[in-house]
Amino acid sequence: MPLVPMRQILEEAAKGGYGVGAFNVNNMEQIQSIMQAADACNSPVIIQASRGALKYSDLIFLEKLMEAAAIKYPHIKTAMHLDHGNSVATVKTAIELGFTSVMIDASLLEDGKTVASYEYNVETSRAAADLAHQTGVTVEAELGALGGIEDGHGAGIAADDTTHLTDPEQAVDFVQRTQCDCLALAIGTSHGAYKTLRYDKDGNPLPPKLALDRIEVIAKKLADAGYPAFPLVMHGSSSVPKDLVDIVNRYGGKMPNAMGIPLQDIQFGIARGVRKINVDTDGRIAITGAIRKVFAEHPEKFDPRDYLKPAREAHQKVVEERMRAFGSAGRNDDYKPMTLAEAKAKWYAGAPAGVK
Questions:
Q1: For residue range 321-350, what is the model confidence (pLDDT) as tens digits?
Q2: Predicted TM-score of the model (pTM)
Q3: What does the alpha-carbon distance between residue 238 and residue 192 come to, in Å, rounded to a whole number?
Q4: In the structure, what pLDDT confidence band is assigned to residue 163 with cuts at 50, 70 and 90?
């Protein structure tokens, strides 16, 4: 079975009231562990790669690894998604590689660091949608700007800066003008392992305070404007579990006061329209902790298989836990897969043929 359009996965998730994890990859072991988790949970899955991942893997290797994943697990509904595409040219490259979904992040300029104007975001996102929809590829756009930096992408917005959160008053206009298929919201989440600025009265670190109310407000505004159950996206949604951080620190790592997004906050969003949840840092921490543990306990080991195998197992466990927490476990067989050609015929019939 070929990879499927992400829009189908998200629309089915909306029908079922659950969320679908979008897990970042850079190498073979990550792809293997995510697909093994999806198979074990019988869950649809979104695998995503950033521009940094494409550069690291040298494009063709990642393309062929995803082909292998689709061949080995033909029964799993899998979308391949470009994470934080910075330009229409990057989107075009991803489509040519066989991605079934792309994100155009025009909330920042093409340098991936400077916060862009609203009009720049609209115009660039619409150009990406016009291109992608020609072949039935799903488009995610972002309104507002997220905190943190990931793979060199991000404006470095402070965790307590609320000036770049998604403006609910712009949501309907943005979706109408860009024709995006799903919308990434800036509600206070941040890329990477959040370094807390909040503590309780006893000095214990607290997770970031999210503007969760904006999810419900935006979802209602979109529904009232004729976009019922429009898929919303949460970026920077790793939970950074303390037990995984403790393993990293126990074996020589330095992650003081690393925090993430509590699962209950993500589940709150899912109940109000969030359908795609981006998870990267949790996997990185699990992998790093497993490798550090092998190096510390078995310094004589030098075969990469001796530490990549437990790293792969640790990553799989995290992905399975997220699939169950998001509600996608057991939902893979709920519907028949759609091709890109069928997606175009259903949703983008007016788009011109071919990628130009």
A1: 999 999 999 999 999 999 999 999 999 987
A2: 0.92
A3: 8
A4: low
Is residue 355 domain-resident? no
Residue 342 belongs to domain spanning: 6-347
CA-to-CA distance for 99 and 349, rounded, in angstroms?
Answer: 20
Question: For the segment 250-305, what is each residue's pLDDT rounded down to a tens digit?
Answer: 999 999 888 889 999 999 999 999 999 999 999 999 999 999 999 999 999 999 99
Domain annotation covers residue 353: no
Query: How big is the CA angle at 41 (ends 35 and 42), to the nearest 5 degrees?
Result: 80
Selected catalytic residue, list 83, 105, 151, 181? 83
CATH classification of the domain holding 174: 3.20.20.70
SS3 227: coil
CA distances from 69 to 39, 64, 76, 77 (A): 11, 9, 9, 11
Query: Which pairs from 303-309 meet CB under 8 Å and 24+ separation?
Result: 308/29
Compute the distance between CA of residue 307 and CA of residue 291 in angstroms, rounded to an integer.
5
* Residue at 354 is within a domain: no
Size of the chain, expressed as the number of residues it contains? 356
Q: What is the spatial distance between Cα 259 and Cα 330, in angstroms, rounded to a whole number?
A: 29
CB distance 164 to 144 below 8 Å: yes
Number of domains into which the chain is organized = 1
Q: Quote the CA–CA distance of 271 and 267 in Å, as a whole number.
A: 6
Check if 173 is active-site: no
- For the segment 63-120, what is each residue's pLDDT rounded down to a tens digit? 999 999 999 999 999 999 999 999 999 999 999 999 999 999 999 898 877 889 999 9
